[in-house]
Amino acid sequence: MLTGALAGCRDAPLSAIDAASAGARHVADVWYAMAWGSAGILLLMLALTAVAVRRSKDGDAGVSARRGHWLLIAGGVLFPVSVMAALLVYAYAKAPPKDEAAYHVQVTAHQWWWEVRYPDAPGGVRYSLNELHVPAGVAVGIELRSADVIHGFWVPKLGGKMDAIPGRTNRIVYVAPEPGVYLGTCAEYCGTGHAVMQLRVIAHPPDALEGLLSRLPTTEGVRP
Predict the structure, then answer these.
(1) E-strand stretches of 14-155
(2) 0.85 surpassed by pTM
């Protein structure tokens, strides 16, 4: 049943475990480690509970009290700290090398749409709305800003989430390994139109991207 449920998650357009890039695969690997680790811990707790129930009617009260004290320290302090430390080490050890961006875009989040600015487009700055055009197989540096409230920029198949915060510029690097369309969304509740704040990352063969950018609008602040 669990395998079937996870298979359904992998087929979803915004699935975080249907990774298309190394960065997204790292997120998926950590998710799997947390999911299966949590299942193992749950089974362990259920087993300990069963043992405790069976033994609660027997034994000296003083011995039980001392045993309970040490169990509280081991289970309430040492075990959680060990689990969190192991997860932290695993996440850092499995992280792919950081990519140096070779292509740059600027994304401004609005309620409830995305404005994309291409500062290095041929013939001058170009803009697009709710679509981000990138070269396939190239590390893309994305500068994130917000024009109003906090938004969450997230393309699950390409990597993790990064917030767009008013008055601040955040940066994230994505690599779309192959030409195609990768769906994204706002992952931070930002008002009544949050559910429709969608984004498409369209990866093109590098030699085809320049011609496409030259046909995009040159007007800043294009609106839906």
Answers:
(1) 103-110, 113-118, 126-129, 131-135, 139-146, 151-154
(2) no
